[in-house]
Amino acid sequence: MSELPHGLIEGTVIERIDWTDNVFSLIVTAPINNYIAGQFTKLALQNLSGEWIRRAYSLVNSPNHKKGYQEMEFLLITAAEGELSPRLNALTKDDRIYVGKEACGFMTLEEIPEEAKDLWLLSTGTAIGPFLAILDEQLTQSRFENIVLVNAVRTEAELVYQSKIQALVERYQGKLRYIPIVSRQHCARALTGRIPALLGSGELAKKAHVKLTPENSFFYLCGNPCMVHDTSDVLIQLGYRKHLRRKAGQYSSENYWQ
Ligand SMILES: Cc1cc2nc3c(=O)[nH]c(=O)nc-3n(C[C@H](O)[C@H](O)[C@H](O)COP(=O)(O)OP(=O)(O)OC[C@H]3O[C@@H](n4cnc5c(N)ncnc54)[C@H](O)[C@@H]3O)c2cc1C
Ligand SMILES: NC(=O)c1ccc[n+]([C@@H]2O[C@H](COP(=O)([O-])OP(=O)(O)OC[C@H]3O[C@@H](n4cnc5c(N)ncnc54)[C@H](OP(=O)(O)O)[C@@H]3O)[C@@H](O)[C@H]2O)c1
């Protein structure tokens, strides 16, 4: 093995969960530094020519979970012809994996303006992961009046972490609504369509029983960059502004690819 690039440390896969043929979770231990719920780190492996391939992956668990922050969970999809994700999908228990020691990212609780009362967490596919970490934090429960967790996937089988979400809904005692969207199949327990259209038509707000208002609402958008782009357009048309540290607004986003 060639020398480990700066910033990466060795870890071990201790468990994997297979949700579908190409959606899976890896549970990894590694001596990483502490992080904040909502952040991401790097996972890396060498390819056949010995080059290190690194990509960003969000942490699904809160750093305060009972097993401690050095036990991490990641939710992944295998990108067709991707360079790293198919190799990660081949890993099994006790395999070595390489992890960024320092997590980063600004999609965290402390970046949300104090005035926000209703938090909208809008995700496509595996981008539900960082939102589950945020929801796992005790502070999230006390800080907001309403939280709406939206996850849009192509097929029903990709609606992952159902028991974890159910436990969160119960723990939040009415404050948390989970709205799944399935776009390429009929699914009785989910909405059909795409996030921007369902937000723009008012269907998401109606389903959540939460009013959209620029005074109370704050939106995190995460995942498919086209969803982020189209949803931002809808929010701007509805009178919302992108949140900047120097000028508070009502939405912020993280793209999973370019
Ligand atoms: C901040 C950040 C956090 C991320 N967190 C996660 C995560 O928690 N889980 C995860 O699966 N991926 C995540 N990604 C994407 C991840 O970094 C890789 O891009 C992805 O695994 C593909 O890598 P690859 O080398 O296999 O494919 P590449 O050869 O890099 O091919 C990339 C192509 O795959 C598609 N793609 C990439 N990621 C996804 C995805 N998540 N869902 C659907 N299509 C995708 C896109 O079409 C993209 O152009 C994140 C990316 C960023 C920037
Ligand atoms: N999911 C699968 O069945 C499958 C199978 C084999 C391989 N893959 C690989 O997995 C990756 C795709 O993963 P994914 O299904 O999690 O991601 P995705 O393509 O981003 O789809 C997730 C959700 O985002 C929606 N979406 C797409 N573009 C949007 C936009 N502009 N605005 C709003 N919503 C939008 C999709 O709706 P639409 O359905 O309307 O696009 C779908 O509901 C690809 O790399 C692919 O190679 C996936």
Task: Outline the structure in words.
With 258 residues, the chain is an alpha/beta fold. The chain has two domains: 93 residues, Translation factors (Elongation Factor Tu (Ef-tu), domain 3, Beta Barrel); 147 residues, 3-Layer(aba) Sandwich (Rossmann fold), CATH 3.40.50.80. The chain is 21% helix and 30% strand. The protein contains seven helices and eleven strands. The strands form two sheets. A six-stranded antiparallel β-sheet has the order 4-3-6-1-2-5. Strands 9-8-7-10-11 form a five-stranded parallel β-sheet, sandwiched between helices. Strand 3 and strand 4 form a beta hairpin. The longest helix is centred in the C-terminal third of the chain and has 13 residues. The mean pLDDT is 97. Bound molecules: flavin-adenine dinucleotide (FAD) and NADP nicotinamide-adenine-dinucleotide phosphate (NAP). NADP nicotinamide-adenine-dinucleotide phosphate binds next to strand 8, helix 5 and helix 7.
Tell me which CATH architecture of the largest domain applies here.
Answer: 3-Layer(aba) Sandwich
End-to-end CA span = 30 Å
Structural Rg: 18 Å
Mean pLDDT across the residues is 97
Label the overall shape. globular
Task: Compute the number of helices.
Answer: 7
**Ligands:** flavin-adenine dinucleotide, NADP nicotinamide-adenine-dinucleotide phosphate
